Records
---
Amino acid sequence: MHDEQPRGATANVPTSTIVIVGAGQAGGWAAQTLRNEGFTGRLVLIGDESHPPYERPPLSKAVLAGEAEPSSTQLLRPDAFEALGLEWWPDIPVNHIDRHAKRLEMTDGKTLAYDKLILCTGGRARTLTVPGADRARVHTLRTIGDALSLAQEFRPGRSVAVIGGGWIGLEVAATARQRGAEVTVIEAQGRLCERSVPPEISEHLLGLHATHGVHIRLGVHISGIARGADGRPALTLADGDTLTCDAIVAGVGLVPNDDLARDAGLDCDGGIIVDERCCTSDPDIFAAGDVAVTPNPWAGRRMRLESWHNAQEQGIAAARAALCLPVVYQPLPWFWSDQYDMNLQIYGVPLPSHRIVTRGMPGDNSFALFYLEDDVIKAALGANAARDLRFARRLIEQSKPVDVKRLADADVPMGKLSA
Ligand SMILES: Cc1cc2nc3c(=O)[nH]c(=O)nc-3n(C[C@H](O)[C@H](O)[C@H](O)COP(=O)(O)OP(=O)(O)OC[C@H]3O[C@@H](n4cnc5c(N)ncnc54)[C@H](O)[C@@H]3O)c2cc1C
């Protein structure tokens, strides 16, 4: 262990070794932040992938479309990563946390002592469990390797079955269509992205994909995967139909990588539970990103946020908290998705109790929906309306009442809305 003590704002932190487990986006931001805040002690970043921290959103978009190199997703340029002066341990899964001894154990038998630990272990793609899924080649999409392998499947004349009409499934469908493949999306629920958007947006997404020639089957379960007469995979649908295709992609959600934390006795509930300082039930262990279940005042409950914005901001917050700097992490959720020429963004958490005010109409190329409590915007969702959404974000954060009639009038600039 090194003896250096942190200086500057962190001089009172009795920490000589900080270990980050999980070298994804949150882990990468935590590492940068520790150094930016003046931590000069030993910093170890452990990841079970071979790549330094990278951003995943392009994996279902430009990288999958073959329009961007995987290296373009890297969070930091190689020289900037090098300049962090950290120990980078790639390809090493951490197997166990001994909280009593404050020591990590790796699958290869190595151990590593820590003073503070930041868990940024993200999640893994949920796999299909229907009969035959284990014998068929079912793609999932979480890593650079997944994207490169899936990209091989997309070309004119190939048919792709996408199981799951959530964000990943729909982005994959859009990219596959752009690459000329025939695409069918099979969704078990009655509408697209049912868990995250209201019905009018599901309808908009349905229309968008139909316009681009995607076949969408809603309310349909898969009961098995077999090999068709021509040797291609054949999906058996619960309604009795069979769908033969060249490739299958499952976009059926994420399983948080909280096994390490659960095994170590940390409080977990569908992810690692943290407080608004990103601290787990052990005061020396913090968590951030997709794996963290965080109190969210905007939703009125604890929740996990699976988003680029949260991975960055919570990675920063957890690093600051590990250095005993003041932190209150209560993020306004922000998520975006790109499909064809549509950029969709969501700020906040739309609730059924909210009153909806519309600017433009779903189905138009550009529109926005605002979710209000009394005259205060609590959440906003827009397609190709980035500028309006930026203003909405400010209004949400300021909790300022708005003139609702003017909000609904697309000719009134959002900047002039405060009542
Ligand atoms: C294809 C795709 C497209 C997306 N598009 C968007 C988008 O358009 N907009 C948006 O807002 N968000 C999007 N997201 C979500 C966003 O990318 C994630 O929220 C973000 O990557 C989460 O970062 P993280 O660091 O928490 O987790 P991850 O990026 O998953 O990183 C966790 C890392 O920890 C490693 N790890 C796990 N367990 C261990 C262990 N025991 N030992 C060592 N290492 C371990 C994992 O292998 C992984 O490398 C997308 C995600 C995907 C997969």
---
Amino acid sequence: MPPEVLKEAQKEFLDYHGSGMSVMELNHRSVLFNQIVAEAKEDLKDLLHIPDNYKILFLQGGASLQFAAIPMNLMKKRKAGFIITGHWAKRAFEEARMYGEVVELASSSDKNYSYIPDCKNLSISDDFDYVHICENNTIYGTQYKELPETNGVDIVSDILSKPIDVSQYALLFAGAQKNMGPAGVTIVIIRNDLIRDDVLMGTPFVMRYKEQADNDSRFNTPSCYGLYMCGKVFQWLRKLGGLSAIKEMNEMKAKMLYDYLDKSRLFHGTAAREFRSIMNVTFTTGNDNLDMEFVEDSKKHGFVSVKGHRFVGGLRASLYNAIPIENVKALVNYMKTFEMLHG
Ligand SMILES: Cc1ncc(COP(=O)(O)O)c(C=O)c1O
């Protein structure tokens, strides 16, 4: 979370806009909360240039619940394609399998998901309801550099780190906890023609896009405080200059770290160069014990969560929007010192 946003929220914590109440205490159908939702939607729409034929839904249950909600809502012909670029794409595939036929269109499992497979000639037939892609692979540090020609419905889970053309997607979804706000809010941006009543039997009302769209994301009580914080982050991003400005900063941060990794004699990046993520930089010394020593020692220098995901081991630096460039500089300097001592 950007510190400016936290400070602003702190100021309003006990008394939101003279209401005498914290946002946590506001009724989710009150005038004040309606304003919070409306402004958050407007700001997100403005940031992503979301076309008028899309709706923004603020839901709960994380990206993981969407792995089920998407097939339940969209599988009319009971068939979907998946590009398997890692753990999360695989999870979406396994979840959708419960509702219909799932087809693996391409995969990078042969090299432990260290690259994005070639998606030029995917065999997608007309009977596919949608094609699922995971644009940024948090665990493996890979990212699509261009959208695959899926000729159908694309679904991604990476948002707000750079400008995108929303009209190229049928549905986008993301948990707030990376670039948008605290965990507890899930954002779905969906094209209007996909918001339909004819969902699969057994789809809970709360998971039906139509119900949520008709009720302005308040079919049930939303994560009110989380949504308010997301709204503040959207305003922060707009003040910074929007998504082109944040992209430039994110690319600078990533370049700084990758440039060092490419020169280092101790550390090396683990993702294929042409698919390196600007959000999650994965690397290793190649020695498990030394990696662990780096994790432990880095804590003493104020760096947290540099341990790689348990599925891949090694090390990872996540450079989400709120991480300032000074922190990346400090990390690189610290890595240089570690290299001098252990290289
Ligand atoms: C790319 C991606 N998809 C899905 C998820 C799962 O998200 P959630 O924990 O919100 O269900 C994550 C979590 O880190 C992720 O990085």
